[in-house]
Specification:
The protein is mostly helical and 299 residues long. The protein is 78% helix and 0% strand. The chain is built from 13 helices and no strands. Helix 7 packs antiparallel against helix 8 and helix 7 crosses helix 11.
Length: 299
C-alpha cells in the first residue's frame, strides 16, 4: 500500500543526504533537473495519447484542472486576505520596473508544448511507445533524487527558516487553505477526498505534481494536476504587480513553491529586497512539502 510513498521519499531523502555545496555541481544539477522535467512531461504526453475514450478524457482533464484551480486559488486568496487583516505586513518599498510578464508566461507554456508533442507522437501508436510509462517511472526516481540535492544545496538552515516568521506564516496559511480548496474541488468533482487533497498539494510546482500524480492516479488526473498548477503560476505572474503594494502576503502566497525560483525575480522587483528572505523560506517550505504530501495522499 505504501510502496508508492517509499518510491517518492527514498530518492528524495537520498539526494538530500548528499552534501553537495560546490556552485558548479549545483548548477549542473539544476540543468539536469530542467532536462529531466522535459523528458518526463514528454512521457506524460505519450501516456495521455494511449487513453481509451480519448476525447471524453481530455474534457475531463481540463474540467478537473479548472475546477481545482478555481477552488484552491479562491481559498488561498480568502485566507491570505484574512492574514493581512489580522497581521499586516509593514513595508516602505517603491516598485521597480518589472521583467516582461508575457515572456515569463511563455516560458511556463513551453512545458505545455512538450506535453503536446509527446501526445501527438503517442497518437501514432508506435509499439515502442508502450514502454513510456515504465520509462517515466525510472526518470521520476532520478528526478526526485535531483530535487533532494537541489533542496539541500539551497543553503537554507533550520535556523533561517524558523527565524523568518512571515515566510512560515504565509506558507502555513497557503498549506491549510489549499487543502481546504482541494476538499471542496473533490466534492464538486465527485472524486475521492484523497485525490482532491493530492491535487491541492502541488502548490504551483506543475512540473513535479503532474509527474507524481500521473504515476499515482493515471494520466487524466496527472495532466489535470499539471494544468491546475500551471494556472496558479500564470495567475501569480499576472497579479503580483497589482497585489504587492497593499496585499504582499497574497502576492507571495499565490506563488506557492515557485517563490524561491521562477517568480522570485518578479517578487523582488515588485516588492523589494526585503521580501526575498520570506519568499525563499516560503518557496522552500512549499517545495519540501509538495512531494511529501502528494505521496502521502496517494498512498
Amino acid at each position: 500500500m505504501y510502496s508508492g510513498l517509499l518510491i517518492i521519499l527514498l530518492p528524495l531523502i537520498a539526494g538530500w543526504l548528499l552534501p553537495f555545496r560546490q556552485t558548479a555541481t549545483l548548477r549542473r544539477v539544476n540543468q539536469l533537473l530542467g532536462w529531466m522535467v522535459y523528458v518526463i512531461l514528454f512521457f506524460m504526453g505519450i501516456s495521455l495519447a494511449f487513453l481509451d475514450n480519448l476525447s471524453s478524457n481530455l474534457l475531463a482533464v481540463f474540467h478537473t484542472a479548472l475546477v481545482a484551480a478555481f477552488c484552491i486559488l479562491i481559498c488561498n486568496l480568502l485566507a491570505l486576505r484574512g492574514l493581512e487583516k489580522y497581521a499586516p505586513w509593514q513595508h516602505a518599498h517603491r516598485q521597480e520596473k518589472l521583467p516582461s510578464r508575457l515572456h515569463m508566461a511563455l516560458e511556463s507554456l513551453k512545458l505545455c508544448g512538450v506535453v503536446v508533442i509527446g501526445f501527438l507522437l503517442g497518437l501514432t501508436q508506435w509499439p515502442l511507445l508502450h514502454h513510456a510509462s515504465t520509462a517515466s517511472e525510472y526518470a521520476l526516481i532520478f528526478l526526485l533524487f535531483l530535487v533532494g540535492i537541489q533542496l539541500r544545496g539551497s543553503g537554507m538552515t533550520l535556523r533561517q527558516i524558523i527565524l523568518n516568521r512571515r515566510g512560515l506564516l504565509v506558507a502555513s496559511v497557503v498549506l491549510v487553505s489549499a487543502l481546504a480548496g482541494g476538499v471542496i474541488a473533490a466534492l464538486l468533482l465527485g472524486m475521492p477526498l484523497k485525490t482532491g487533497l493530492a491535487l491541492a498539494s502541488g502548490f504551483g510546482w506543475y512540473s513535479l505534481s503532474g509527474i507524481l500524480m500521473t504515476e499515482a492516479f493515471g494520466p487524466v488526473i496527472g495532466s489535470a494536476a499539471f494544468f491546475n498548477d500551471l494556472v496558479r503560476e500564470l495567475v501569480a505572474i499576472m497579479l503580483i504587480p497589482a497585489l504587492i503594494g497593499r496585499h504582499r502576503s497574497s502576492a507571495l502566497g499565490l506563488c506557492g513553491a515557485t517563490s524561491m525560483d521562477f517568480t522570485l525575480p518578479v517578487l523582488q522587483r515588485a516588492g523589494g529586497n526585503e521580501i526575498v528572505p520570506a519568499a525563499i523560506v516560503h518557496g522552500f517550505v512549499m517545495s519540501l512539502l509538495a512531494p511529501i504530501l502528494i505521496a502521502l495522499f496517494s498512498a
